[in-house]
Amino acid sequence: MLNFKVNFSILLISSVFCSGVTYLVTKSGIKHVNNNLTAATEVSPKVAKATTVSCGSVSHRLEGYKYIKPLLWGDKTCESGNYSNLKADLVSAIDKYKQQGVIDNCSVYMKVFNKGEFVSINENETYHPGSLIKLPILITYLTMEEKNAGVLNRKLTFNLPPGGLPRQTYNSNQIQPGKSYTIKELLRYMIAFSDNNATYLLNENVDIDAFKKMYADFGLPVPDVRDRNYQITAKDYSAFLNAGYLTINNSEYVAELLHQCDFNDGIASGLPQNVEVAHKFGEWGDVKTQKHQLSESAIVYLNNSPYLITVMTSGADVKKLPAVISDISKLAYNGIREREVTF
Questions:
Q1: N or C: which end of the chain has fewer CB within 10 A?
Q2: Cα–chain-centroid distance for residue 203?
Q3: Beta bridge partners of 315
């Protein structure tokens, strides 16, 4: 059991990632993502004229209940032609950075919530999750709280493990050895500040069965916590931002944490200052190959058209990757905003 915990911690803290949200929160209040997805299948006449592709839909429902099967998420089965120009611009930008040697690869997944329309680039490429798993860990702890009130108020004492913890390129605030913190405080350090110390302590006390069940509930392959080569696509990871799994109050709490993420060199830097964003980032590196990955996932609150965007990048210099994510974010914002104004 001890080895299992250690391996699990290694998988989760081998990189840094501040991650997503389970409910869509707009400026006018909270809207359950499932409601948006239901409405998204109804294409307005104006949009229908601009769309040349006819798409079906797919949904995923939770099992394990006697009388109901709650809707977790739903999507169209193919991209809309409405954002073909934007996709072309994104592909062109990715190709430019590849030619310059800044990146080896880049994947993008975007979804406009109120229409259910999405854009996906290099969707079959996989990336090391590293601390991307911090979002599932956060969700797991909140489900633990929902089943057993008071979990978040438990205090845990942090002791630095032998050999220390992986170094981080982007990190602002950490818990201190020898001090005690509530689980709720640790969750804030983990999500808002990308603190590996807090993440390590949380990983040592998480309910492994609840963690695995959550992955299965989302319809995603359950990670083997002993496999350091486990990888995930941008589209699959976006499921954690695209589904309603928690209560409204806990979803609001997640959104509050995401708004506190203090990494502002990626998606946020590609947006106007007055645009709200709930976002998290993550990094991973291989010491032997000197390969690095930087990923970020966000919900951007563009007027009445909030959208999800996940960008995963890989390259030799991790400090050059934020500019790539920023450029993609700017292109995405302008492309979606232009279409919303036009239609």
A1: N
A2: 18
A3: 292
Q: What is the DSSP string of 58-120?
A: EEEE----SS---EEEEEESS--GGGHHHHHHHHHHHHHHHHTTS-SEEEEEEEETTTTEEEE
Angstrom distances, CA of residue 268 to CA of 255, 272, 296? 15, 8, 10
**What is the residue range of 59's domain?**
2-342
In the beta sheet, which residues pair with residue 325? none
Rounded Cα–Cα distance for residues 135 and 325 (Å): 20
Of 29 and 275, more confident? 275
Give the H or E element holding residue 34.
helix 33-40
H or E segment to which residue 182 belongs: strand 180-182
pTM score: 0.81
210-252 per-position pLDDT tens digit:
999 999 998 888 887 677 788 999 999 898 887 678 998 998 8
Q: What is the DSSP annotation of 194-258?
A: --HHHHHHHHTTS-HHHHHHHHHHTT-PPP-TT-TT--B-HHHHGGGTSS--S-HHHHHHHHHHH
- At residue 251, φ and ψ (nearest 5 deg) are -65, -40
Number of independent structural domains in the chain: 1
CA atoms within 13 A on the CB side of 54: 0
Single-letter residue type at 121: I
Residue pair 74/244 in contact (Cβ under 8 Å)? The answer is no
| CATH number assigned to the domain comprising residue 16 | 3.40.710.10
Name the DSSP letter for residue 280. E
